[in-house]
């Protein structure tokens, strides 16, 4: 088993845990946390491929990751702001109770 | 001179403008309203006096006449022209109307002081004054007719000024409708005149309808049995004049018109507007006097004028004898005096009739304003049986009223009414057709002296009988009116005396001024006064007037009436006759039984037709329309709506099903996204393996 495969397996596990958390949790913060886990898994993949993938420019993976982290931070900030707005509005952060946009 | 004539339109325009401004003023602007109205009329008066002076100074052989005409309506080859004329007739009337009008305006400031619609009153008064001034200076029958109707409108508005009083509203309606009957005649005459001569302009440099060319054409064509076109047109015009001037049988509106405020009675229904009929006949006199070539004797139109006037003079004087309302007596007296004017026009021509018109305007305005002062001072009491003894409380009113009464009765030598009436009687005596009008005129003079004595004695002498009446303010003593009311009285009283001296047989200045035919007598000559003919007539009429006065005194003055409920002295002598007179010869009742009932019959027939005949037709059409609409509705509801509704319902169901997919729950969406991503991943894997 090459080091790349080990990284990929860990990343896949991490993604699976994040996906499971995002899909099963009803608390909006935990869903957000799940999404963060998934992003982390993706970052891990990027780093791993950058290190072991045999590319001409090994720094490309790290640069990508830095971008993703910055974008993820911004996305989390927006998500948290939405959650706060939701809480102010409805006094709850349970996602299954926020179903006003149903058809 | 021509400059003055061309600016003459200002005379009626100013009061009309004032009326327009007043109509926009708020109710509270009382001082401004009165000031504007009086100011506008005062300027008109100045212009009128200038016009009078100009025409007085320049009497030609034909008399002074300046004309301004302008096209008004142009259609096809026809042009309808309007215009105004400045001649002695117009100038004298302008001066009289604006002078008397101005005095009455000033008087109204005092009389209407307590009325909340003060501004509206002056607006109407100004409208009237402007329209009346336009009547007298019109040089076109159409313009005259327009102003004539405006005057009628103002009269209607002012009679009904206190429209809350049902009697006033009814009187206004009656006046409007009755004069309309006469105006129909005037209108027909105007159309006929236009059809016959192609013009309605009076004086137009030889082409006017009153100038010799047109008149001789009209007089030369015969309708039937000796009646020429000019005679028929004149008679139609006379009908209009009789309506406006309250001549029998169209006199019924004038006494009722006394429901209006007293200054209105004085201005419109005594001094100026009712004289418009007389003025119209005087204005169109060439047409009335037109005789077919070769014919001798008096034209039939003039005979009609004379007989109508003489008959009305006696008829109305008889009614006046038995009335009890101070203003109604004066109203019937006005009808009677207007009859005198027509008599004067018929037998003596323009100068004779117009002389009486001018003097009458002065003393009748005085009498009405005096009556207003009495009513004002006695808190609205108008019944002469409940007045009395006012000479002590209202000395100025009493003195001026006495002057007016003596002028009206024709007390010899000093008062204007004597001279003008004398002139009429003199002309009637010399009338070649009949002596009838002369004797009728004398009878009228006797009656006039009698009823005026009766009124005078009952109102001003004896004890005051108002205190006996029930009512809260009945106990209040009568009082003299404020100076703003008494000063016009004094001025008018002076006029009622002085005006007569311009028309005595010794110095007939007014006659010479108004009628160029009299111009030869312009120089004063006392000998004419003492000619046997004149002296004999003067003695006769003096005797008649004095016997009228004496009779009145004997019946009413000898024993002062103390009880308002006591029967009239004349009633004791002749109860049946008195009742007939008190009920005004039952003309109103006669009209109610004939004309009004006839109208009501037609109206009922119309109602029946409307309800059943035309109504049935309407019902039928309505039913058809309803049936059609019902069928249409059925088709609409079942076919069109049904199909559309079904399609809509299906669309809604489909939409609802699709909407069910959108649950609004975030987790379910996430699941969808995950499933989609999984499927995409599998697809890629599968694709990569191949």
Structure description:
The complex is a heterodimer of chains A (103) and B (690). With 103 residues, chain A is mostly helical. Helices cover 77% and strands 0% of the residues of chain A. Chain A is built from three helices and no strands. The mean pLDDT of chain A is 87. Chain B has helices spanning 2-6, 10-24, 30-57, 88-111, 118-137, 141-159, 166-197, 212-220, 229-244, 253-256, 262-271, 275-283, 285-288, 300-321, 326-348, 350-377, 390-393, 395-409, 416-429, 436-460, 483-498, 509-514, 526-529, 532-557, 569-573, 575-582, 587-661, 666-689, and strands at residues 66-75, 78-86, 222-224, 227-228. The chains are: A mainly alpha (103), B mainly alpha (690).
Attribute tags:
A: mainly alpha; 3 helices; 0% strand; B: 690 residues; two-stranded antiparallel sheet; two-stranded antiparallel ribbon
Task: Please give a quick description of this structure.
The complex is a heterodimer of chains A (103) and B (690). Chain A is an all-alpha fold and 103 residues long. Helices cover 77% and strands 0% of the residues of chain A.
Number of strands of chain B: 4
Helix segment count of chain B?
Answer: 28
**Percentage of residues in helical conformation of chain B:** over 70%
Percent helix of chain A, as a range, is over 70%
Relative strand content of chain A = under 5%
The coarse silhouette of chain A is elongated
Q: What is the distance, rounded to the nearest whole angstrom, between the alpha carbons of the first and last residues of chain A?
A: 50 Å
Tell me, what's the shape of chain B? elongated
| Residue runs with pLDDT of under 50 for 5 or more positions of chain A | none
Number of strands of chain A: 0
Mean of the pLDDT scores of chain A?
A: 87
Overall SS class of chain A? mainly alpha
**What pair of chains forms the biggest interface?**
A-B, 14 and 14 residues
Order of helices and strands of chain A: HHH
Oligomer: heterodimer
């Amino acid at each position: 088993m090459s080091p790349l495969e080990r990284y990929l397996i860990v990343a896949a596990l991490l993604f699976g845990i994040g996906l499971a958390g995002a899909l099963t949790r009803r608390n909006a913060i935990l869903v957000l946390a799940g999404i963060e886990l998934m992003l982390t898994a993706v970052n891990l993949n990027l780093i791993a491929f950058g290190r072991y993938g045999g590319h001409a420019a090994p720094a490309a993976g790290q640069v990508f990751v830095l971008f993703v982290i910055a974008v993820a931070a911004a996305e989390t900030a927006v998500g948290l702001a939405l959650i706060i707005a939701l809480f102010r509005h409805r006094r709850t952060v349970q996602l299954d109770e926020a179903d006003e946009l149903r058809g | 001179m021509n400059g003055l004539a061309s600016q003459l339109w200002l005379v009626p325009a100013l009061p009309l403008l004032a009326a327009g401004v007043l109509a926009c003023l708020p109710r509270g602007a009382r001082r401004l309203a009165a000031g504007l109205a009086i100011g506008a009329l005062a300027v008109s008066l100045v212009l009128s006096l200038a016009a009078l002076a100009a025409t007085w100074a320049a009497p030609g052989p034909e008399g002074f006449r300046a004309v301004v005409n302008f096209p008004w309506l142009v259609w096809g080859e026809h042009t309808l022209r309007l215009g105004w004329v400045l001649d002695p007739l117009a100038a004298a009337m302008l001066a009289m109307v604006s002078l008397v009008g101005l005095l009455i305006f000033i008087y109204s400031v005092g009389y209407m002081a307590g009325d909340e619609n003060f501004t509206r009153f002056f607006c109407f008064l100004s409208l009237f004054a402007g329209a009346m001034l336009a009547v007298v200076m019109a040089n076109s029958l159409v313009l005259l007719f327009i102003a004539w109707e405006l005057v009628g409108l103002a009269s209607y508005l002012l009679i009904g000024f206190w429209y809350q009083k049902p009697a006033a509203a009814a009187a206004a309606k009656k006046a409007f409708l009755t004069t309309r009957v006469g105006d129909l005649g005037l209108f027909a005459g105007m159309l006929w005149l236009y059809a016959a001569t192609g013009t309605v302009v009076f004086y137009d440099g030889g082409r006017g309808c009153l100038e010799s060319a047109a008149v001789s054409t009209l007089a030369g064509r015969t309708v039937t049995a000796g009646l020429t076109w000019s005679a028929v047109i004149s008679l139609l015009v006379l009908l209009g004049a009789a309506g406006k001037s309250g001549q029998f049988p169209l006199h019924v509106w004038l006494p009722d018109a006394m429901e209006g405020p007293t200054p209105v009675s004085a201005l419109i229904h005594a001094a100026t507007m009712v004289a418009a009929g007389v003025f119209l006949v005087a204005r169109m006199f060439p047409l009335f006097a037109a005789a077919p070539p070769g014919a001798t004797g008096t034209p039939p139109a003039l005979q009609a004028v004379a007989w109508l006037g003489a008959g009305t003079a006696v008829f109305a004087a008889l009614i006046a004898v038995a009335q009890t309302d101070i203003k109604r007596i004066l109203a019937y007296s006005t009808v009677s005096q207007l009859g005198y004017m027509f008599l004067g026009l018929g037998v003596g021509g323009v100068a004779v009739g117009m002389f009486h018109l001018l003097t009458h305007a002065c003393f009748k305005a005085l009498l009405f304003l005096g009556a207003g002062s009495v009513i004002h001072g006695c808190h609205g009491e108008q019944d002469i049986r409940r007045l009395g003894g006012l000479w002590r409380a209202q000395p100025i009113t009493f003195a001026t009223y006495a002057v007016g009464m003596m002028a009206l009765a024709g007390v010899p030598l000093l008062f204007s009414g004597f001279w003008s009436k004398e002139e009429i009687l003199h002309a009637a005596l010399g009338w070649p057709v009949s002596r009838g009008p002369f004797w009728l005129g004398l009878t009228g003079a006797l009656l006039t002296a009698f009823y005026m004595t009766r009124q005078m004695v009952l109102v001003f002498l004896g004890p005051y009988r108002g205190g006996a009446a029930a009512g809260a303010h009945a106990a209040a003593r009568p009082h003299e009116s404020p100076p703003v009311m008494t000063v016009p009285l004094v001025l008018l009283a002076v006029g009622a005396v002085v005006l007569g001296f311009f028309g005595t047989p010794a110095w007939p200045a007014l006659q010479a001024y108004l009628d160029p035919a009299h111009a030869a007598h312009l120089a004063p000559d006392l000998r004419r006064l003492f000619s046997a003919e004149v002296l004999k007539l003067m003695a006769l009429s003096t005797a008649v007037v004095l016997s009228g006065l004496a009779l009145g005194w004997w019946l009413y003055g000898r024993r002062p009436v103390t009880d308002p409920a006591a029967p009239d002295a004349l009633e004791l002598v002749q109860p049946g006759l008195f009742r007939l007179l008190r009920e005004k010869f039952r003309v109103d009742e006669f009209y109610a039984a004939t004309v009004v009932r006839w109208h009501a019959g037609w109206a009922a027939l119309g109602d029946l037709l409307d309800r059943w005949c035309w109504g049935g037709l309407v019902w039928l059409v309505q039913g058809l329309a309803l049936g059609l609409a019902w069928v249409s509705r059925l088709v609409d509801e079942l076919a069109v709506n049904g199909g559309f509704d079904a399609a809509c319902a299906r669309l809604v169901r489909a939409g609802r099903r699709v909407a069910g997919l959108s649950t609004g729950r975030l987790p379910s969406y996430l699941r969808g996204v995950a499933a989609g991503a999984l499927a995409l991943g599998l697809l890629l894997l599968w694709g990569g393996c191949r």
